[in-house]
Amino acid sequence: MKKLFPIISLFAFTIGCANDPDIRNAGWGMSRTEVMQSEKAVLIAENMIDYGGMNQTNLDANTYYLTYAGEFIGQRIYVEYWFSFRGLYAAQYRFPDIKNKEDYSAYFRTVIDYYNEEYGNAEVLQDGKIHHWKSPRTDVTFSIVSRPIIQFAPHNKKSYSQQLTDAMESIKKYQKFQD
């Protein structure tokens, strides 16, 4: 029995980790129905991109969106879940009440402190306008390039700066192909 206890404990720990959510109460690959059942916030839009209440119709036929009204560290947010035919593949928080730099400068520090505590120090890019954290299953990016946004995606082993470099190289190759 003493020999079985470590094996049973390891199995229970593995099962528990596998069921940990990746974003809020949802996991990567979940269906829309599963996310709708797990999300506690109020659903405000289906298959629409809701940027500050404009309710723009989704023009991407390969992506389905669910938008919820929620809260994150004392701020009202829109929680947007993005789905493909394979399930949940991205999510983001948008901040409808934050309109200018004065509104978000203090809050920005609060978000950075929260995620630094949760995941360790961020990879910082673009003179501090982008902070990127990694967990074993999820990458979190907080950006204030135009308006503040927090994006969530399945874990990628590459650094965020390498991902941006790779994306720019792909764009250049595409542009050369078009010429």
Low-confidence stretches: 4-18
Overall tally of structural domains: 1
Structural class: alpha+beta
- Largest sheet strand order: 1-4-5-6-10-9-8-7
Q: Summarize the main sheet.
A: 8 strands, antiparallel
Give the strand tally: 10
Order of helices and strands: HHEEEEEEHEEEEH
User: How much beta, percentage-wise?
Assistant: 25-35%
SS summary, helix count: 4
Instruction: Give the averaged pLDDT, no decimals.
Output: 79
Supply Rg.
19 Å
Shape category: globular
Give the end-to-end Cα distance, rounded to a whole number of Å. Answer: 70 Å
Assign a percent range to the helix content.
Answer: 25-40%
Protein model, in words:
The protein is globular. The chain is α+β, with helices and mostly antiparallel strands. β7 and β8 form a beta hairpin. The strands form 2 sheets. It has an 8-stranded antiparallel β-sheet with strand order 1-4-5-6-10-9-8-7, covered by helices on one side. A two-stranded antiparallel sheet has the order 2-3. The protein has helices at 4-18, 32-38, 101-119, 160-178, and strands at 42-46, 48-49, 56-57, 64-72, 75-84, 87-94, 123-125, 130-134, 138-143, 149-154. The model is unreliable at 4-18 (pLDDT under 50). The chain has 4 helices and 10 strands. It has one domain.
